[in-house]
């Protein structure tokens, strides 16, 4: 902690230098991560378990081996000029493949945090995740509020419950319509499926933002035709070609949530949450400096500008950490690419080592009856972004930003006047269920944003689950390093996504 009387300029410079050295030593002392991929890249011929979108593919949708080998060579050598030599099939470029090589002067280095190996394409866990995604596509237009009574949601819950290795939440021992597609935290299981922070009006200075959004038209999905799917794998640009509902609506189903997370400013939801909490006067964490001061109010530090900037600041650190995992460790295929494996296998075009839980699921037959293919219906005409699936950028940023908010605010505080949307999504109505806490709704917000990407068909459940934890670790490390820089001594307490109470 700085202090010891008023220093002169030279002494202050020495103190500042020692502070930076101390932070660097703290970062260096942290346990180094061991990065382990799942082995699919070397086990399966043709790189079928890997992300290949944007590279040249043959008529069956398999990547040209020389192109993938060139990508691997570039990632191995890590020479910036080499990234310009990666062969692409179309105009759509790869997204930030060098981001994981950048250093940071705050928080953990991108190489010093990790996530476990992704589920392997041939095993039951991956099959269970894909079955969930097929059901998400089928239920994209069913309101969350109708899951308990809707026959399709009941069928989805029953099938997921019977899978060999489905790792979504359960009620007791069973997957139920009430647990369908929810996140894994305690807050996810309380109250409405969607967080209050995605419905409540956002105070924006002298303005007020009403969270009615333009969403996709119901019943319109994409990349279910193999020719169009192949064109997009080969880099065809379809961004901005979706059919949109002209009526703005509150998010009430997966299609609305998918649209929100398609074009959001990446930390947008957490900035909105922070503004809502500040405007409502939700108390700061009891261990926050100046909380009991009779003469000082927080502003430049321990006040609104501090938390607003810090909450957004962690986003870029989180992105660098997960981008290293994406490109330099896992290179996991996207769900739409897995759907290509399923389609070719089911139609007899090319066999794939896939688990029976996905090849024989009822959801797949429903998909074929609707679309005439076994491809995963996407909510976006462009399909997934041009970077590997694991981990998820949205989920990692969600984990980092909500961790800052949970450290800052009293997470046990109850949110007053909660709401739910009307059936058509054009108005808000009072919510009358059990109390909703700040901490629970922040955890739910993180899972909603991450799961919205799953509901669009561009990410997997494990992408979400492991990435919010990764973002949490990044944010906690930044808070730990920053703590020593203040004249005051903060003591911040929060509950992690896995339910552990920790003190910073």
Our count of helices gives 15
The CATH class label is: Mainly Alpha
- The separation of the N and C termini measures 15 Å
Shape: globular
Q: Tell me the domain tally.
A: 1
Q: Give the fraction of residues assigned to helices.
A: 40-55%
CATH homologous superfamily, by name?
Answer: Vanadium-containing Chloroperoxidase, domain 2
Strand order of the largest sheet: 1-2
Radius of gyration in whole Å, from Cα? 23 Å
The overall average pLDDT, rounded, is 96
The CATH architecture designation is Orthogonal Bundle
Characteristic terms for this protein:
504 residues, mainly alpha, Vanadium-containing Chloroperoxidase, domain 2, two-stranded antiparallel sheet, two-stranded antiparallel ribbon, 15 helices, 41% helix, 4% strand, globular
Present the secondary structure layout.
Blueprint: H1 9-29, H2 40-43, H3 65-77, H4 124-138, H5 151-161, E1 202-204, E2 207-209, H6 226-233, H7 254-263, H8 268-279, H9 304-330, H10 335-347, H11 356-359, H12 362-371, H13 393-408, E3 419-421, E4 428-430, H14 438-456, H15 461-483, E5 493-495, E6 501-503
Antiparallel strand pairs: 1-2, 3-4, 5-6
Description:
- The chain is mostly helical and 504 residues long.
- It has a single domain, classed as Orthogonal Bundle (Vanadium-containing Chloroperoxidase, domain 2).
- 41% of the residues lie in helices and 4% in strands.
- Strands 1-2 form a two-stranded antiparallel sheet. The chain has a two-stranded antiparallel sheet with strand order 3-4.
- The mean pLDDT is 96.
- The chain is globular, with a radius of gyration of 23 Å.
- Helix 14 crosses helix 15.
- The longest helix has 27 residues.
């Amino acid at each position: 902690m700085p202090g010891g009387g008023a220093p002169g300029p030279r002494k202050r410079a020495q103190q500042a230098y020692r502070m930076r050295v101390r932070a660097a030593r703290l970062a260096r002392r942290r346990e180094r991560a061991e990065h382990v991929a799942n082995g699919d890249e070397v086990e399966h011929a043709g790189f079928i378990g890997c992300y290949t979108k944007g590279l040249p593919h043959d008529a069956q949708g398999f990547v040209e081996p020389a192109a993938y080998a060139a990508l691997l060579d570039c990632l191995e050598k890590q020479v910036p000029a080499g990234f310009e030599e990666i062969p692409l099939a179309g105009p759509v470029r790869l997204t930030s493949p060098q981001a994981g090589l950048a250093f940071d002067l705050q928080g953990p280095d991108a190489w010093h945090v990790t996530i476990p190996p992704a589920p392997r394409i041939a095993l039951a866990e991956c099959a269970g995740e894909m079955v969930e995604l097929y059901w998400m596509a089928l239920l994209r237009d069913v309101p969350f509020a109708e899951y308990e009574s809707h026959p399709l949601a009941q069928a989805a819950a029953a099938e997921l419950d019977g899978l060999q290795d489905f790792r979504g939440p359960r009620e007791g021992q069973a997957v139920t319509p009430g647990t369908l597609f929810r996140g894994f935290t305690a807050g996810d299981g309380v109250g409405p499926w969607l967080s209050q922070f995605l419905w409540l009006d956002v105070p924006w200075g002298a303005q007020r933002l009403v969270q009615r959004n333009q969403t996709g038209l119901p019943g319109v999905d994409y990349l279910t035709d193999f020719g169009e799917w192949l064109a997009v794998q080969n880099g065809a640009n379809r961004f901005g070609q979706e059919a949109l509902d002209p009526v703005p609506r509150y998010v009430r189903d997966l299609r609305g949530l998918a649209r929100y997370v398609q074009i959001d400013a990446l930390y947008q939801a957490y900035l909105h949450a922070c503004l809502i909490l500040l405007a409502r006067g939700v108390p700061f964490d009891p261990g926050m400096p100046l909380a009991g001061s009779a003469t000082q109010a927080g502003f430049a530090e321990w006040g609104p500008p501090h938390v607003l900037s810090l909450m957004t600041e962690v986003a870029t650190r989180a992105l660098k950490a997960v981008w290293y995992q994406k490109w330099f460790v896992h290179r996991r295929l996207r769900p739409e690419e897995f759907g290509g494996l399923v389609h070719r296998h089911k139609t007899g075009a090319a066999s794939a080592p896939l688990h029976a839980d996905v090849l024989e699921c009822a959801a797949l037959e429903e998909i074929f009856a609707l679309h005439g293919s076994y491809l995963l219906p996407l909510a976006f005409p462009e399909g997934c972004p041009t970077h590997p699936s694991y981990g998820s950028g949205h989920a990692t940023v969600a984990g980092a930003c909500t961790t800052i908010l949970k450290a800052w605010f009293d997470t046990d505080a109850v949110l007053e006047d909660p709401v739910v949307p009307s059936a058509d999504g054009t108005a808000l109505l009072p919510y009358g269920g059990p109390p909703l806490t700040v901490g629970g709704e922040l955890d739910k917000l993180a899972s909603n944003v991450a799961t919205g990407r799953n509901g669009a068909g561009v990410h997997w459940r494990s992408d979400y689950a492991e990435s919010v934890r990764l973002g949490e670790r990044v944010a906690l490390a930044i808070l730990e390093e920053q703590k020593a820089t203040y004249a005051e001594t903060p003591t911040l307490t929060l509950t992690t996504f896995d339910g552990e109470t920790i003190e910073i």
